[in-house]
Amino acid sequence: MEARHAEEKPTSKPMPYPPGPKPLPLIGNVFDIPRSKSPLTFLKWRDLDGPLTWVVTPERPFLIVNDYELLKELSEKRGNIYINRPQNFTAGELVGVDKGTAFTQYGRERLWAYDDEKNNCVLKTLLDRPDDFLLESTKLMAEMTTEIVYGAHRDDEDGGHYYIQMQIEMGIITFKAFEGYWVDFFPWMKHIPPWLPFAQWKRDALRWSKEYNKTRDYLFQSVKQKFLTTNGEGMRPSFVLSMLKELYSQLDQGGGGLAK
Fold this sequence. Notes:
This protein is mainly α. It has two domains: 12-83, no CATH class; 86-253, no CATH class. The protein is built from ten helices and two strands. The protein has a two-stranded antiparallel sheet with strand order 1-2. Helix 5 packs across helix 9 (200-230), helix 6 packs antiparallel against helix 7 and helix 8 packs antiparallel against helix 9 (200-230). GO terms for molecular function: heme binding; iron ion binding; monooxygenase activity; oxidoreductase activity, acting on paired donors, with incorporation or reduction of molecular oxygen. Its cofactor is heme. Residues 1-21 are annotated as: Disordered.
């Protein structure tokens, strides 16, 4: 039986990985992965390797997709396989960005369609003033996140513009945390104490974590207090509101009631 089973096993070899820069022993392509302006490096790899580039690190491999149609194929037709958020040790475990909605791992989530009119307005602004791309993109992401997650609009009288400004500050922290640190490639470095002279990255991460969590908690508590006051009446649909309704519905069923 064992001999026949061995004969029946397919003899074809597994498909090779896509091309990419040659990895070094133990550390892989750590020195090849860009710390900033990564799209420029990825475009160079596309010219050398084609639409797919394979790079490896001690932590995990990366597949760089440099083709729109191929990316569309992977994200739309096979989205249930590949859809997820990037995991990053500095941003996630140290700063706490992974607890935010934008970087929550794929699972029980509720998403709302964002107003196309706002997107078109931003696109028109970018066409008229392309030099403002980073500023306008940052503002758009902050407005989208604030409205989808917290149900706040910039024209709200109760501080919508202030919410967006805080979201921009959270976005800046996120960008800094994702710039790339050695600990993201060598996880054992997380045990390095922050007081060591060369551990500035960890001191920065701890400071960012305090600022990020303080802002996020303030935004959440603002929605929660409004929900407890109005029982959700008149509030815009949002991720947080949906979660609060579900939570307090479960508490009511269990006899807990609305806890202040």
